[in-house]
Structure formats: structure tokens, C-alpha cells
């Protein structure tokens, strides 16, 4: 369980690497207001450097397990806590600012608490939007793929068939996601 976090971690001295790839973790924070796909909202945040929308993510450090790192990054960047679900997958992507590659793991996070004050509140905006809006707003292809995996997981987890038609159209075979 994450206690109060007053500031974000900084530096790379505890950063995990694997075969030259920086390991990053993040979450797709979400809430559900009803049985239809339109009733699912996901939380996106702005980049620190510009208005680009993304899901919260950051470095996985040596002194924490992957689940703790994902929850910590989401709390630091988006100011939410919740119930972490099963890992959606792992994606390799190129850094937007450096000539380096990262491996990113993403988890769904059912939001149970939205904080008024969090470490990066003054650096980012957070915006709740529908899945369809998020797919349009997110400009990183690997994050759009993670969103597709999220919809597939939610579709399989629900018994309500009103979500399934949208989800099944997005679902790919599990071999597309590591």
C-alpha cells in the first residue's frame, strides 16, 4: 500500500535496465459508470513538456516490485490511487527525447481515490475521457495498443454483453502483446 507521497522520485541511480532497455511501468486509470463502453472513462495526463496526452508512466526502480512502481508512478503523475489489475502487456518504444528504447509494462487501475494535491499537480493536467476520446487524444501508438488491450481485458471480465461488441472489435490475439 502506498502511503502519502509528497514529492516525485528523481534521478536514474535506481533505474532498472534490461539488455540496454530502460524499464518503465504505468497504468491506465479508469472508472466505470454503467454497462456500456461509453460508460468507461480513462484518465490521461499531459506531458511535463507539452500538452500531449498520455497515460501515467515512469521508471521502474530497483527497490520496488513492478506493481508498486506502476502504482507509485500513477500517484505521482496523476494523483489517483486504486485497485491494480492484471498486467495488460509489455511494449517496446523509442524515447521521444533521446535515441534510446524503453520496454513499458502497463496495468489497469480501477480508481478508488482522486487526490486534490499530488506531487506533479503543478506540472500536469489530468483529464477524464471516454475510451474513444482517449484513443484519439493519445499520440503514442504503443499507448493506443495498451488501451486496446485494456478494452479486451475489461470485455472478458464483464458478463454484460453491451460492452462486448466494441471490445471484441478491438481485441487481437494475445501474441500481439507480450
Layout: helices, strands, pairs:
Elements: E1 17-18, E2 21-32, E3 40-46, E4 53-54, E5 57-59, H1 66-78, E6 80-84, E7 89-94, E8 101-114, E9 126-130, H2 131-137, H3 141-157, H4 164-170
Parallel strand pairs: 2-8
Antiparallel strand pairs: 1-2, 2-3, 2-5, 3-4, 3-9, 6-8, 7-8
Number of helices: 4
What's the order of the H and E elements?
EEEEEHEEEEHHH
Distance between the termini: 27 Å
Query: Main beta sheet, described?
Result: 9 strands, mixed
Mean pLDDT: 85
Q: What is the 3D shape? A: globular
User: Mind telling me the C-alpha Rg?
Assistant: 16 Å
Number of strands: 9
Helicity level: 10-25%
In percent, how much strand structure appears in the residues? 25-35%
Unreliable parts: 160-170, 173-178
Structural class: alpha+beta
Describe the structure.
- The protein has 178 residues and is α+β, with helices and mostly antiparallel strands.
- It is built from 4 helices and 9 strands.
- Strands 1, 2, 3, 4, 5, 6, 7, 8 and 9 form a 9-stranded mixed β-sheet that branches.
- α3 crosses α4.
- It is globular.
- The C terminus is likely disordered.
Quick recap:
With 178 residues, the chain is α+β, with helices and mostly antiparallel strands. The protein has helices spanning 66-78, 131-137, 141-157, 164-170; strands at 17-18, 21-32, 40-46, 53-54, 57-59, 80-84, 89-94, 101-114, 126-130. Strands 1, 2, 3, 4, 5, 6, 7, 8 and 9 form a nine-stranded mixed β-sheet that branches.
State the main characteristics.
178 residues, alpha+beta, 9-stranded mixed sheet, 4 helices, 9 strands, 25% helix, 31% strand, disordered C terminus
Amino acid at each position: 500500500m502506498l502511503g502519502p507521497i509528497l514529492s516525485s522520485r528523481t534521478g536514474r541511480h535506481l533505474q532498472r535496465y534490461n539488455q540496454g532497455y530502460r524499464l518503465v511501468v504505468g497504468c491506465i486509470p479508469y472508472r466505470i459508470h454503467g454497462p456500456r463502453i461509453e460508460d468507461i472513462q480513462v484518465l490521461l495526463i499531459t506531458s511535463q513538456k507539452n500538452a500531449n496526452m498520455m497515460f501515467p508512466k515512469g521508471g521502474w526502480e530497483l527497490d520496488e516490485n513492478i506493481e508498486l512502481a506502476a502504482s507509485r508512478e500513477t500517484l505521482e503523475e496523476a494523483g489517483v490511487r486504486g485497485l491494480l489489475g492484471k498486467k495488460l502487456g509489455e511494449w517496446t518504444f523509442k524515447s521521444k527525447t533521446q535515441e534510446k528504447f524503453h520496454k513499458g509494462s502497463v496495468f489497469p487501475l480501477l480508481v478508488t481515490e482522486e487526490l486534490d494535491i499530488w506531487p506533479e499537480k503543478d506540472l500536469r493536467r489530468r483529464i477524464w475521457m471516454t475510451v474513444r476520446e482517449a484513443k484519439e487524444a493519445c499520440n503514442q501508438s504503443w499507448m493506443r495498443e495498451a488501451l486496446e488491450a485494456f478494452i479486451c481485458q475489461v470485455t472478458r471480465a464483464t458478463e454484460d454483453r453491451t460492452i462486448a461488441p466494441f471490445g471484441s472489435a478491438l481485441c487481437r490475439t494475445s501474441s500481439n502483446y507480450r
